Amino acid sequence: MLRWALIFLVVAIIAAVLGFGGIAGAAAGIAKIIFYVFIILLLISVVMGLVGRGRPK
């Protein structure tokens, strides 16, 4: 998922350099959304790993 965020970020930068403002803004917005989803899923995964570690086997 982080790969997709980076791909959209690169697309946004290239579109901005070439002067396509609307496409650059949309790609940057998508990249931000995907990045935040990645961060939330990462935090959930870390918390679940810590909670699961505390249980005796």
TrEMBL record:
Any Gene Ontology CC annotation: plasma membrane
Membrane-spanning segments: 7-27, 33-52
Keywords: Cell membrane, Membrane, Transmembrane, Transmembrane helix
Recorded family membership: Belongs to the UPF0391 family.
NCBIfam families documented for this protein: PRK13682.1-1, PRK13682.1-3, PRK13682.1-4
Name of the protein in question: UPF0391 membrane protein CWE21_11465
Source organism (scientific name): Pseudidiomarina aquimaris
